Amino acid sequence: MDIQENIVNKVAQSGLVSFDLATIKPAGERVLYDIKDNLFHGLMLREKDFREFIKTHDWSQYQNKHVAITCSADAIVPTWAYMLLSTKLSEHAATIIFGDLEALENYLFEKAIENLDIEQYKDQKIVIKGCGDIYVPVSAFVSLTTKLKGAVKSLMYGEPCSTVPLYKRKD
């Protein structure tokens, strides 16, 4: 007696749509500009020296890069110094923020999520992919959840075969 069972792919039949945040990660190199390298004896910023540096530095090395500006030294850096630095960086860099590389990554994902057209997810059952090879900050998961909640039928986290329910619209 030969019994053949049909294997049913319940995940495929569920109508779940998987969303991988890694697919919207903005391309481009991330660079940290640490103003500590411009400090006199690592303690203070001298305006004359800094202005000379601003004039003579090769800013083209930041072409199309995403730049985070910070000061890792325990020094008082006047606000205008960061502003002056951004005037030159803005001629070349794709993005400039004040903060560290983590803040830069948060910002880049935030912008990508802001520009996301969520109409395609309207009334869908969405699973936000949890694991992957590309780093995605937690802030991106929070922002995406907030943005999708108003449009989707349900929202889950994980993989289609093993999800954590987050939200279900009451119809």
Describe this protein's structure.
It is a single chain. The chain is of the alpha/beta class. The chain folds into two domains: 10-26 and 116-168, no CATH class; 30-93, no CATH class. The chain is 30% helix and 21% strand. The strands form two sheets. The protein has a four-stranded mixed β-sheet. The chain has a three-stranded parallel β-sheet with strand order 2-3-4, with helices on both faces. Strand 6 and strand 7 form a beta hairpin. Helix 2 runs parallel beside helix 3 (79-89) and helix 4 (101-114) runs parallel beside helix 5 (138-149).
Topology readout:
Layout: H1 10-13, E1 16-19, E2 30-34, H2 47-56, E3 66-70, H3 79-89, E4 95-98, H4 101-114, E5 125-129, H5 138-149, E6 154-159, E7 162-168
Parallel strand pairs: 1-5, 2-3, 3-4, 5-6
Antiparallel strand pairs: 6-7
